[in-house]
Amino acid sequence: MYLISACLAGEPCRMDGRAKPVPEIQALVKAGKAVLVCPEVLGGLDTPRSPSERQSDGRVVNRLGQDVTAAFARGAALALEICRNTGCSCAILKARSPSCGKGEIYDGSFTGTRVPGNGACAGLLLEAGIPVLTEEEYLITLQKTENKQSEVLP
What we know:
Elements: E1 2-5, H1 23-30, E2 34-37, H2 39-42, E3 52-54, E4 60-62, H3 69-85, E5 90-93, E6 104-106, E7 114-116, H4 120-127, E8 132-134, H5 135-152
Parallel strand pairs: 1-2, 1-5, 5-8
Antiparallel strand pairs: 3-4, 6-7
């Protein structure tokens, strides 16, 4: 079972009120291999909502200047609880999100500048020993697997 960012499965829960559906991830949902979460919504934030970014001091602040760190932490903790309670062994999360981003997030300046780091949820899952992939990493892994299978086939 995979813990998956709900927006990747087509749920309109992103800060702009939209989804970012990925057909290959939607296939996991249809196959019953996924549990959907939106840590930001779990943490009590509305959809749509003001964009948020992690600051260099670790806080999460929205574009309006409001500190939303507590909501992000609450959502991350609930996502980890759901992951454990449903037997998910891996997470596929939205790249660069202040909650779900893994390895790279926006720098807190709201200018589109990226820096190394993890979102609140991705970081907590990784600390708990749960492997995390972004949707981009998942698609690369899937492509590599398909290439290996085609090499074996006549």
